[in-house]
Every structure is written in C-alpha cells, then in structure tokens.
Automatic annotation (TrEMBL), chain B:
This is Cytochrome-c peroxidase. Residues 210-326 form the Cytochrome c domain. Keywords: Heme, Iron, Metal-binding, Oxidoreductase, Periplasm, Peroxidase, Signal. Pfam families: CCP_MauG (PF03150). Its main location: periplasm. One of its GO terms (molecular function) is peroxidase activity.
Length: 262, 326
C-alpha cells in the first residue's frame, strides 16, 4: 500500500530502497546485538579475607584494636560500574542490574558485566544502591526486598551487612550487628569504590578482564572512622553512625591482580 | 535524483512504521479491562505513577483479594483488612492501637486508607517512600502480620487460582514481591473518598444545613485549613501539634526517619475526611473523641462549646458512606 506512492524511476532508487530495507530490518532485533563486535567482558572476583586468610565464619578473630569478633554474615550490594580508558574516556554500565555479594555463597562473589574492548586504567563501583532505586517502588532481581537487605519501615536498602558476636559487645547474647545504609543527605552511606587496574593488557573483543579484589574485613573497623565493638556493637538505622562506618568501606577493597583471559 | 531523495524518505517512513508495529510487545494479559483513575474534578494531580502500574478491573479485584487474605500473615489471622476495616474508612474501628500476631499491640493508631494516590510517603512518620513498598512493613513487622515476604510468596504461589489471576493481570503466573505489591496498590488506589456530603455540596448536588454551614465557617475562620487543606483535608506535611512525648513509646515521629532534631515529634498531618469514623485520634490514638481533640487545641485554637458542636456537625459531612462498600 505504501509502496504505491513510491515512484521507482530508475535502478538507483530501487537500489536505495533495497538498502533502506536491509538497514532498517535488523533494528528490530534485540538491542545490543549490533555492538557485539566491540564487546568484551569485565569480571570482578571478590575475596573476603580476615587477617590475610579467607574469611571463616567459625573463628574468633582479634581486631587491630584488640577486640574480638566472630563474624557470621557478610553481604554487600554493588552496582553502577564505571571505567576509565587509558588515555581518556569513560564507560559506564549504569543500566546494569545490581549484584548482592554474600560471603556464604561463593558464586555470588563473582560479578560479570560487558564493557567495550579497549585498554583501561581503573574501574569504580557503587557499594550500595543509588537513591532513585530506594524510592521508586518495589525492585526485582538482587534488589528484591525479600533478600532481607531492605528496611521496610524506613524505605531503603541495607547496603552492607556485617553480623557476628563478640565477647566485647555489651549487647544481649554479645551480638554485633552492622546494617549500613541510608540514602538521605547528609548521611548517604553509598560509597564509590575505586579499583585501579593500570598496566593491564589491552582487552580485545570477546575477552574477559578479570579483576581479583581482596576484601579485608578487619578494615571495616579501621580507617577514617575507627570503630569499636565495645562502644558501637550495633548500627541498624540510616544516619550519622551508619554513614561514619561507610567511610571506612573504600579501605576494604584492594586489587591484587588484573589480567585478560580468553 | 530528486526521486531518489523522495523514495528514500518515504521508505524510511514506511520502515519506521513497520518497526513500530513489529517491535511493540503484545501484552499477554489479553482481555484486561483498563480502568481510568477516578480523579475528582478540580483536585490536584495524583502523584502515584500509574504508567508503572496501569489500573485494570482484574488488577483491582486481585488486590482486593490479597487485602482480605489472611495468608499474608504468619498465622492466617491478620489480613490487611484486620486493621484497615472498610466500615471504619479502613482504620481500626474503636482502637487506639491495633493489635497483631500473638496478642501484641502495635505502637501507633492505624490510619484510614483513602486518597492514597496523592501521597508520596506513608506511615505517620513518612518513612515509606512509595505506596508499593507500604505492604512490606506490616507484613514483616513481628507485632503485626509477623510473616516473611518469602513465606507469603510461597503460600500464594502454591495456590493455582492466584497463579491464574496473576498471569492474567501481569502476564506471568509467578507471584513476586513486585507484582504482589502492585496488585495491592491497585486496590488501595481506587479507594478514592470524594463522595461525602461536603463533596456533594461542592458539586452543587446538595446543601449544608444551617449547623453544617456554620461549622464550615468556623473551620475556615479558625484556620483549621492551614494544615487540613481542601480538598484532601491535609497538606501532607509533617507538623507538631504540641502533643507531648508519650513515654510508653518514646515515638519521636519524623525524626525517627530523618535523624534531624528539627523533626522531633512531627507527624504527618492526617486528613479530616471520614474523621467521624476514624476515632480514636492522633498517631497513638490517645484522644478518644473530638471533644478530647478540641481540648488539646484549647491553648492555641480556643473554641466555645457552641463552636465545638457546630464544627463537629461540619466534620461529620466529610464522611463518605460509599468508601465502606469498596
């Protein structure tokens, strides 16, 4: 019907027609496939540690300040991954989902996303959840409130959870519970974590850039805000204490290795 | 060469139209009957984003079924409707504090549920930032429905009827946190209270009697409407009306959410709509009747006993009989 309006006068216009059809039709395919030739993968592997050895949930550790701590739960959200190309330019994968890392579930400690091929000098991720997703209804996937990382009475995500026991805690049953979150200014506890990877080889299409990251849990208690279990064994609400503890978070993460794999 | 230009242009248009048709996802729902949100004439625009949860007759019915279903609670005894009773404008009738699982009291008075599409936060302290998130609080509170979200979803997913209904409304039989709460929102959103005598008078369909008219004048003269703004009869803000801290609960209100001392003892201004049905009053239900409330305001807004009676006559015209049947 539409074609009847097209006056095909010579073979050039017929050729143009064919070109348009060939060009337009593939655009109905799933988005993203067009860019495949340039795409490579980025993989973060988090390694929770305590005092240089893999975190164990059945062990009582002595923290740098002399207090004792037996960890039982360690979880955190990550998302909003960005990267800096060597020689300038940034990439972001802000459309990506969030990831919930749980020290008790090894598979959750590796997160994978796709990035353009190229050479990178650093990456960042948000430890936490951006404020928009805290206020725009019920999210799904890793952010589904049924994951237990959501405050129902004061809408908002728990960005990171560290629980355990300590004989130094004055709480009932010596419980230590840090539920760190809060998106409201001035106590937004979401922290951007930087991961330098300069010197890593050029990442070609289809390859994977693997970044191994140590997560040294004793540093939860040290850094800009020295945290004592005896004085603060519990932080269960957004606010100043949660924000102060979150200021230690960037110290937890150290890149130990970054390499390109086929 | 001109013809190449035109044919290209027309073909581009044609291709775009084709693309528009073939790329539009067909809704799996089929025969869903969409409902237009019943926004009363002259009211402000609602703040709920209906594009993220389009109202349908089936969605509302599903939400209503969930609202009345005890399986949303741990022991089956506490559906949403146990504390939000239709005949009390969806507050708890004659209860200062509602009670939940295992004979426990809650710490606050259950508010009536109506005109929720105009609210951008919920609870007396505004701690909940979206209507869809609201049900998660009572479901998981140990002194209310005392259940986990996971258990609720497991119970609902085990019910073939629910699976069918969710498939129809949301295109997937799997009941998730997101579509369960969206269904509940659909029901709560259509609880629009805009058919009281007051509304009929405003629409020119009825007339106040002398006492009601005099009461309305007092309402305006005494500036009750500086907080209880028409037509919602609330400015939706957090205010302190001078109530002292109740030492039984140490409930500091909005400050519990913001952490700011300036918000201490501030609570969300409640709507006066259906106020004759929602007693006892205040966030903790400490005032049994309107007389107690007038007495509380006696320092700031003194009223004679005649004024009190007339004001009460006006406030009774804010009762919406139709709401209870929804």
């Amino acid at each position: 019907m539409y074609l009847s309006y097209v006056r095909i006068e010579n073979r050039y216009s017929a050729l143009t027609l064919l070109c348009w059809i060939l060009w337009i039709l593939p655009s109905c395919q799933k988005a993203g496939e067009d860019e495949l030739p340039d795409q490579a993968n980025l993989e973060f592997r988090f390694h929770p540690l305590m005092q240089g050895t893999p975190l164990s949930f059945s062990k009582t550790y002595t923290l740098p300040n002399g207090e004792r701590f037996e960890p039982r739960v360690f979880k955190f959200y990550s998302g909003q991954i960005t990267g800096q190309r060597t020689g300038g330019g940034t990439i972001n994968s802000s459309g990506d989902p969030y990831y919930l890392a749980d020290a008790a579930q090894p598979a959750s400690l590796t997160i994978k996303t796709s990035i353009p091929a190229g050479s990178y000098q650093s990456f960042q991720f948000l430890l936490g959840v951006d404020s928009a997703r805290n206020v725009s209804g019920v999210q799904s996937g890793a952010l589904d409130p049924l994951k237990g990382m959501f405050w129902t009475w004061n809408s908002g995500y728990i960005f990171a959870k560290l629980e355990g026991r300590s004989p130094d805690a004055t709480t009932p049953n010596n419980l230590v519970e840090y539920h760190i979150g809060g998106f409201r200014v001035p106590y937004n506890a979401a922290q951007t974590i930087s991961l330098p990877v300069s010197g890593t080889a050029q990442l070609k299409a289809g390859q994977t850039l693997v970044v191994d990251i140590d997560v040294e849990l004793e540093k939860w208690f040290t850094g800009p805000y020295p945290l004592s279990i005896a004085s603060n064994a519990v932080s269960m609400t957004p606010g100043e204490l949660a924000w102060n503890i979150s200021r230690n978070f960037s110290g937890l993460f150290t890149v130990t290795q970054s390499s390109v794999e086929e | 060469m001109k013809s190449i230009y035109y044919s290209t242009l027309i073909l581009l248009l044609f291709a775009l139209m084709q693309w528009g048709i073939s790329c539009t996802k067909n809704d799996a729902g089929g025969n869903l009957q969409s409902i237009e949100f019943p926004k009363p004439a002259g009211w402000p625009d609602p703040v709920y984003d209906f594009s993220s949860n389009p109202l349908t007759k089936e969605g509302v019915a599903l939400g209503r079924k969930l609202f009345f279903d005890g399986r949303l609670s741990k022991d089956g005894n506490f559906p949403c409707v146990s504390c939000h009773q239709p005949f009390a404008a969806f507050a708890t009738f004659e209860h200062d504090l509602s009670h939940g699982f295992n004979d426990q009291f809650t710490t606050r008075n259950a508010p009536g549920l109506f005109n929720l599409a105009w609210h951008s936060n919920f609870h007396h302290d505004g701690g909940i930032t979206h209507l869809d998130l609201q049900p998660l609080a009572p479901i998981t509170a140990p002194n209310e429905m005392a259940e986990t979200i996971e258990n609720v979803l497991n119970k609902l997913n085990a019910d073939a009827d629910y699976q069918k209904e969710f498939a129809k409304v949301f295109g997937s039989p799997e009941i998730t946190t997101a579509n369960m709460t969206k269904a509940l929102s659909q029901y709560m959103l259509i609880l629009v209270s805009a058919n009281s005598k007051y509304d009929q008078v405003k629409r020119g369909q009825a007339q106040f009697d002398v006492n009601q008219e005099a009461g309305y004048k007092i309402f305006l003269e005494k500036k009750c409407n500086s907080c209880h703004v028409e037509p919602l009869f609330t400015n939706l803000e957090f205010m302190s009306n001078g109530l002292p801290l109740n030492p039984a609960f140490n409930d500091v209100g909005r400050m519990r959410i913001t952490g700011s001392k300036a918000d201490s003892l501030k609570f969300k201004v409640p709507s006066l709509r259906n106020v004759a049905l929602t007693f006892p009053y205040m966030h903790d239900g400490r005032f049994w009747n309107l007389e107690d409330v007038y007495q509380h305001y006696n320092q700031t807004i003194p009223l004679s006993s005649v004024e009190r009676s007339l004001l009460t006559e006006f406030l009774k015209t804010l009762t919406d009989e139709r709401l209870g049947g929804m």
